[in-house]
Structures are given as structure tokens and as C-alpha cells.
Protein 1
Amino acid sequence: MFVSRSIAAGGIDPVGAAEIMSNFLPFNKIFGAVKKMRGAWRGVQSGAIADKQVAAGIKEIYEQGGKKAAELAGEYGAHAVARAKGLTSIGFSPRYHGMDGIYRDAITGKLVIMEAKGGSAVLGRTVDGAEQMSKTWIEKKIKRLEDLGRKVGVDSGTGTDFEAIAEELRASIQPPPTLRAIVASTKVDGPGAFAPSFIEKTWANIGTLDW
């Protein structure tokens, strides 16, 4: 597969490539394949995509992914979760905001943020001590985007309005908060390999239970 080979060679960003390649998976079948591991409980939900074609697609890309194989599997798995949950990427690179993905819920129209993990990777801490996907970490990323919005406004190349997205994210964590957050994980070996799983929380539940 050309895209995965280009990633292995360092020519394509794995985040953007995962979104492109996710369009070629049989996602019309995934909607019935999101198996709940447990139902929503106090604003927390978890589940997994148990679709053999999705797993096979992610495995193929992993095997051709070179040094970025696990990272790519994680990003690809995250986009599978997003598609299965009816989320659409707002379409700009993590280099602008530091989050793996910002999506919009097709039903509610509200924003959802996503952090992708592949292989044995887990949520970590930034140099200033903020834990990934904690409220503090998310607020720092929103502040980063706000600063960019004030400096740049609208990106001349993509037409992305950084300031508008930052304002919407900021508003989504104000009372009553509407922001949802998802951590998507894709193992690459052992039981459940290449079957993306996820934990989803409302803003109120971030920090109250372990991811």
C-alpha cells in the first residue's frame, strides 16, 4: 500500500494518513460492530470495534508502517472509533493544537476531542507535569489554540478559522459543559490485537476515574 510505505519512509504524517485511509475501510459495517464493554455509567462509556475487516486493515498498515507502525495503528484505530460513533474530523493538524483529533458529533453538533494510543503506549505527562487528557492538559491546549487564533486568525492555506474553533472549545467547557473526550487504544499484539477500543467521558467525569 503506497500510503503506508510513504509513512514508513517518513514522507507522510501518520495522523493525516490515518484519516485518509479510514475512508477505504468498510465503515458501513462498523456501526453494528461497536460492542459495548459496559454501558454508560455516570457519564463514562467504553467499548470496542469487533470487526474482522477493520482489524485486518489496521494489521496490514501496521506491518508496513516501519518505525511509526504502532503510532499509525493507534491513529487509524482512533479514526475507526470516530467513524463508528458518527464523529467527523474538523480537519486540521495536531501541530496546531496538540490534540490527536478534534471531531464534531453529527447528531448533536458538539465537539469531541480524541487521544489515540497504539501498541503499548499510554497516556503520559507533559514537561510541565500535566497529564494527557486531564482537564488541565485540555485547557492548556485550548489556550494554545486561542493564542494561535489571536496571532494568525484564519489559516491562508486551509481556510481554518483557529480563533473560531478556540472560542467553541472554550465555550464547550463552560457551564453547562458539552465537551466529550475519548481515549482510543489499539493493541498490536496479544488478545484483542488490532481491534480498537475506547473510553469516553463527559467533561464532568474527566479526572474522577482513571482512563
Protein 2
Amino acid sequence: MSFTNKVFLITGGSKGIGKAVALGAASQGASVVISYLSDARAAEAVISQIGRDRAIAVQADASNPDDIDRLVKVAVDRFGKIDVVIPNGILPLPLFYYPLDQPPFRHSRIGSLVAIANDI
């Protein structure tokens, strides 16, 4: 599968599963925007592996609506669009205990982030 000309936004993309998704998407031709909470070194290592022409890292707390707004803006400003959103590491588990109008969803922009990505 080719992801050429696709832009992936991956929260928590500097380590673990998020890093693996970022590297995998990039290996198939995607441009990648990763967010990280606090480990700038780990995020920069991922960006270096992919290449600065096709990847950027943005410090953002995925539970903070203002940070998510900024993350989306940076992604669109850099790459012109977002095709795929991977909300990795955003929500506490277990999710099934939360009604959709209560935390973590009430103050989360996951739905907005996915909707924005679909509209771009």
C-alpha cells in the first residue's frame, strides 16, 4: 500500500506504537506530523529517521483543546491538509466507562480532530 501524498497526524508519535505507526506510514511515502508531550529528544529522533522534508514534531498535550487546535494548524500550515488521524495515547482506559458527553470526551477534541481531518 502506498501513502504517497498522504499526511498522517499521530498524537503520541514519539514512542511505542505511535512511533511505529509514524515510521511505517513514512516508509510507505506519507508525510507525518507527530505530537509529543514532553520528550523532545525522542520526537526529534523520529523526525530525523523520516527526514525533515516529510515530518515535523509538535509539542502538544492531546487532552488540551488549545494544543490540539495548534497541532492541527501547524500540520495544515506545513503540509496543506491532514488525511489520516491516529489518536494514539489520548484517552485514558477503560473508555467504556465514559458517556460521550462526559470526560474524557467532553473536553477532548478527538471528534473535532477527526472531523477536521475529513473536511480538509
